[in-house]
Write a structure and sequence with these properties.
Shape: globular
Keywords: Cell outer membrane, Membrane, Signal
Number of helices: 18
Helix content: 25-40%
Subcellular location: Cell outer membrane
Largest sheet: 2 strands, antiparallel
Family: Belongs to the SusD family.
Strand order of the largest sheet: 1-5
Order of helices and strands: HHHEHHHEEHHHHHEHEHEEEEEEEHHHHH
Distance between the termini: 48 Å
Radius of gyration: 24 Å
Main location: membrane
Low-confidence stretches: 1-33
Protein name: Starch-binding associating with outer membrane
């Protein structure tokens, strides 16, 4: 893939910003004949474009930066970061996320706040610059171009604010940064909800459509993207404010699917929304462009590269990032004796196995020519080693062959099916065999020109189908919900598969709806939010997790490091 002009421009903008912040003479008495300040930084159209793009890369980073991905997934019934014989214990911090026993002194409670507000601050600063342009012709721009930029940055900020509302509920609405010496006061959730809603509604008319941008749509907020954020806001409104907006959510979903906000279409293959062709996919409603040569946050940092078993890179033939050290894996569905657990929640791999003809259940395998099959790393992972011999992925603790299984325990070198004496299966007793891992974004071999070239699909059209299906289900229209879900699900099964829902929707229950959200959006950073909306995040049981004493952990504490700096903030209830 060609180097991304989007992020190349951002890189140039970052250099320019450093020059602005660090340049100049140290003699404060000197009379300067030339100086760059916030008032005259914008001199050309290129300056305006750089200013416009500046908040976007930081916002891309926030999909995992500040532990945002970890907090969404590890606190749910989906992913785990267990103690693997001393690896990833890290003072028990990930176990506290799993057990919902985090405290304001855990660094990630501050990190997520700071990461998201870093984006809000950058976006607000850019907005003030853009809104301060009174004569766009001076920059060889039209008013429509300027209005488009303003609308896109407002939408970007709304996306960040929506995530802050979801994480912390009692948040500060940053509307001005220039000349400000401290942040504002927190507002009630309803006020934050109304503000985000207003920002999106006012921005939509000035936003481009996907079609008007053509191949350059990736990384740009469009009418469809902003409308999809309204869907997220309305779908979770009852959690956020106590008042449901499912009818509003259904209306916006229907309008999106009807093409009111641009033309979109589902892919025919399950993996296409995550492949290197996804920047121009009709299913990508909003995404951040990525490439091996430039930025690819979903592939490193705190996301998918840390979801790979140790030494799995040899199996892929992808060695550019070195070998892996597995931070994440799916929570187990079976005990050490391979007996399925009885709880209804969790067991993500077993939830896939419920429909055994699901093509995603195949073991992930690179097929050559930028193609792959299957979504899970499971069992033995064979490859040809440097001596030209068939080998299999091995432990760094042995080195014995690793057999990846839907179980957690100290299996060590035990062959599959062998009963082990230690029956303990919990967050503090795992080895490198423990847990199956999904591979949604491909790891093509190092020799493949399309390696690590996928965009990050933050919003897919499938989400709109599922959101509308949930609204119909909640309104009593199970048949309508089943049709919508099957429209997406059909690509996961062979033609005529019995795994598709019956047209009358009779198989749909609250648990099945939540399970299906988990299958389609596995490890896409939303599981906690979905569990809270379905009322089971605090009351449910899953592997090595008992119900919480109360529901105050539905939102995170504001980190103590944040409170120490911003003394006007009030801690969230229960902390």
């Amino acid at each position: 893939m060609k180097r991304s002009r989007f992020f190349n421009t951002i890189r140039i903008a970052s250099v320019a910003l450093v020059l602005v912040l660090t340049g100049g003479c140290t003699n404060l008495d000197e009379v300067l004949s030339d100086r760059i300040t916030s008032d005259n930084f914008l001199q050309t159209k290129e300056d305006v474009i750089r200013d416009f793009l500046r908040p976007f890369e930081h916002s891309y980073w926030t999909i995992q930066g500040g532990a945002t991905f970890m907090l969404q997934e590890n606190s749910s019934d989906e992913l785990m970061t267990p103690n693997r014989q001393g690896d990833w214990f890290d003072g028990g911090q990930f176990q506290r996320v799993h057990y919902h026993t985090w405290t304001p002194n855990d660094g990630y409670t501050s990190d997520a706040w700071n990461a998201l507000y870093g984006g809000v601050t950058l976006a607000t600063n850019t907005l003030e610059d853009l809104q301060g342009i009174t004569d766009p012709a001076r920059f060889n721009m039209t008013q429509a171009e300027l209005d488009d930029m303003i609308a896109e940055v407002r939408t970007l900020r709304a996306w960040l604010n929506l995530r802050l509302l979801d994480f912390y509920r009692n948040i500060v609405l940053v509307k001005k940064v220039k000349g400000e010496s401290q942040g504002g006061l927190q507002v009630p959730p309803q006020e934050a909800f109304s503000y985000i809603e207003q920002e999106l509604k006012e921005s939509i008319p000035n936003l481009p459509t996907r079609q008007s941008l053509g191949a350059n749509a990736i990384g740009r907020w469009t009418q469809g993207g902003a409308a999809a954020l309204l869907v997220r806001l309305y779908l979770n409104a009852k959690v956020y404010t106590g008042t449901d907006h499912f009818a509003d959510c259904a209306t916006v979903c229907t309008d999106i699917l009807a093409g009111k906000y641009g033309q979109y279409a589902l892919e025919s293959r399950w993996d296409a929304p995550f492949d290197y062709t996804n920047p121009t996919s009709g299913e990508t409603v909003f995404g951040f462009p990525g490439s091996f040569a430039q930025t690819h946050w979903q592939y490193d940092g705190g996301m998918y590269f840390w979801m790979l078993p140790v030494n799995a890179t040899f199996y892929f033939g992808f060695t550019d990032f070195g070998t892996a050290n597995p931070k994440y894996a799916l929570q187990p569905g079976r005990d050490v004796d391979s007996t399925e657990y009885s709880f209804a929640l969790g067991k993500p791999f077993i939830k896939f196995q419920k429909y055994p003809d699901d093509v995603r259940l195949k073991t992930y395998k690179n097929l050559g020519n930028s193609k792959r099959e299957g979504m899970f790393l499971q069992g033995y992972l064979p490859y040809i080693n440097s001596n030209g011999r068939v080998d299999t992925v091995r432990s760094t603790k042995g080195p014995y062959p690793l057999f990846f299984r839907d179980q957690v325990g100290l299996f060590l070198g035990a062959k599959p099916g062998t009963k082990i004496a230690d029956k303990t299966s919990n967050m503090n007793n795992a080895d490198q065999n423990s847990g199956i891992t999904p591979v949604k974004y491909p790891y093509y071999p190092s020799s493949d020109l399309n390696k690590i070239s996928s965009a990050y699909a933050e919003i897919r059209l499938a989400e709109i189908y599922y959101s509308l299906a949930e609204c119909k289900y909640r309104a009593g229209d199970k048949a309508g919900a089943a049709v919508l879900l099957n429209t997406v699900r059909a690509r996961n099964y062979p033609a005529g598969s019995p795994s598709l829902y019956k047209p009358d929707g009779s198989q749909l229950t609250d648990q099945e709806m939540l399970d299906e959200w988990g299958r389609e959006f596995l490890v896409e950073g939303r599981r906690r939010t979905d569990m809270i909306r379905w009322g089971v995040f605090n009351t449910g049981s899953w592997w090595d997790k008992q119900p919480d004493a109360d529901n105050h952990t539905a939102i995170f504490p504001i980190g103590q490091n944040v409170l120490n700096v911003s003394t006007q903030l009030k801690q969230n209830p229960g902390y």
